[in-house]
Write a structure and sequence with these properties.
This protein has 107 residues and is an all-beta fold. Helix content is 0%, strand content 55%.
């Protein structure tokens, strides 16, 4: 769950956010996500959410999602938010650490 008790659930073509009052909001291609299955979802403490897909890594804030690692660069499997601004991602090219707007492959 994310900031404010929101629950994020990945789907076949996007993600659903369920807020603490039970309201559901769907985010998909119209919001910047690729039209394909979401593999993992990880909210961060800053109110954003990280999305892993087979086509890239995305970060959402508000109603928009942006690719933080290029579309098609690799398949991502898991996301771990360590602290604000530091995110670990496991993908087909190995482990990477995202910090200060840059990714660094660990191996």
């Amino acid at each position: 769950s994310g900031v404010g008790g929101d629950l994020w659930i990945g789907g076949e073509t996007g993600v659903a956010r369920i807020d603490s009052a039970g309201g559901v909001r769907w985010f998909g291609a119209a919001h910047g996500l690729p039209a394909e299955p979401v593999v993992d979802v990880a909210p961060d403490r800053a109110g954003g959410v990280w999305i892993a897909t087979r086509q890239g890594l995305y970060r959402g804030a508000g109603d928009r999602f942006v690719a933080v690692l290029p579309h098609g660069s690799q398949t991502f499997f898991r996301i771990f938010v360590e602290k604000p601004g530091v995110v670990w991602v496991a993908g087909s090219d190995g482990l990477a650490r995202w910090e200060n707007g840059r990714a660094r492959n660990i191996g």
